[in-house]
């Protein structure tokens, strides 16, 4: 798995990261994490406050935030692509999603992407489309360099694709496919963790990206640029890549993540209520 975390801003008027790799990583952040990550944000945001000490006369058992359901009838992991395509193709009418769904081993690909994201790394081999159009540009205001807003607009198609997703539908798809994600994660995950841990980490990366409405300053760094603000330059690869999309697109991605999270929370709440 490759990592774009150490790629800075190109000084040669090329797309961020060169060859469209950055945009593929951003699409992954905006689509795959949104498909697989809403449950993670739900778990993350619904952490309960410490319970009041229980008395011997009146024990106070904690209520679970999630009640697992029996696994639905699903194909094997190796034969799941047809079902996954059927479930996902209706989430957006945009052609970019259909292009990605033409790939194989979709559950494994999504799982690997989420695991990489959870570590703050941007995989560049998972998606091979949506290279940004136009050139990356920097404006020089008397020696103070800043990213040209036109460079952010190059990634608007990613934000628009994310916005086009059916949030409640994405939640239902993920809920249905949870057993397959869990199975795939056992093959690629870190010991002592499960897919929910990876999803929590991935959503922490996405939702922790600062939304910067003003100028983002850059400084030359060899043949490249880097962020002038050392705090931004020190961010993970995922967050640095998302920052390069601009405030408009960061807001769209984060808003859709929360929409899907709310839908998953509603599904889990309904299931909990239905428990005998």
What structural category do the secondary elements indicate? alpha+beta
Series of H and E elements: EHHHHEEHHHHEEHHH
The first-to-last residue Cα distance is 45 Å
Number of domains: 1
Number of strands: 5
**What is the helical fraction, as a range of percent?**
40-55%
Number of helices: 11
Shape: elongated
Q: What percentage of amino acids are in beta strands?
A: 5-15%
What is the CA-atom radius of gyration, in angstroms?
Answer: 20 Å
Strand arrangement, major sheet: 1-5-4-3-2
Largest sheet: 5 strands, antiparallel
Short structural description:
This protein is an alpha+beta fold and 276 residues long. The chain is 51% helix and 7% strand.
Mind explaining what this structure looks like?
With 276 residues, the protein is of the alpha+beta class. The chain has one domain. It is built from 11 helices and 5 strands. Strands 1-5-4-3-2 form a 5-stranded antiparallel sheet. The chain is elongated, with a radius of gyration of 20 Å. The N and C termini lie far apart (45 Å). The N terminus is likely disordered.
Which short descriptors sum up this protein?
single chain, 276 residues, alpha+beta, 5-stranded antiparallel β-sheet, 51% helix, elongated, disordered N terminus
């Amino acid at each position: 798995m490759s990592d774009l975390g150490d790629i800075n801003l190109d000084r040669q008027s090329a797309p961020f990261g060169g060859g469209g790799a950055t945009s593929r990583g951003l699409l992954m952040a905006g689509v795959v994490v949104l498909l697989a990550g809403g449950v993670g944000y739900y778990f993350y945001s619904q952490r309960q406050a410490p319970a009041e000490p229980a008395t011997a006369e009146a024990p106070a058992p904690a209520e679970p935030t999630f009640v697992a359901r029996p696994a639905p009838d699903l194909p094997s992991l190796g034969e799941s692509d047809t079902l996954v395509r059927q479930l996902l193709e209706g989430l957006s009418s945009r052609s970019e999603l259909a292009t990605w769904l033409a790939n194989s081993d979709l559950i494994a690909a999504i799982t690997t992407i989420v695991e990489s994201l959870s570590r703050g790394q941007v995989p560049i081999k998972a998606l091979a489309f949506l290279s940004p159009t136009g050139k990356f540009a920097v404006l020089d205001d008397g020696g103070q360099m800043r990213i040209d807003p036109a460079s952010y607009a190059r990634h608007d198609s990613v934000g628009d694709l994310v916005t086009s997703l059916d949030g409640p539908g994405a939640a239902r798809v993920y809920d249905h496919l949870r057993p397959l994600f869990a199975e795939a994660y056992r093959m690629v995950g870190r010991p002592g963790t499960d897919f929910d841990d990876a999803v929590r980490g991935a959503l922490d990366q996405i939702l922790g990206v600062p939304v910067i409405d003003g100028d983002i300053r850059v400084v030359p760094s060899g043949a490249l640029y880097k962020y002038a603000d050392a705090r931004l330059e020190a961010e993970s690869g995922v967050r640095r890549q998302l920052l390069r999309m601009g405030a408009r697109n960061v807001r769209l991605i984060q808003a859709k993540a929360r929409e899907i999270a709310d839908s998953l929370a509603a599904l889990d709440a309904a299931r909990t209520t239905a428990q005998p």
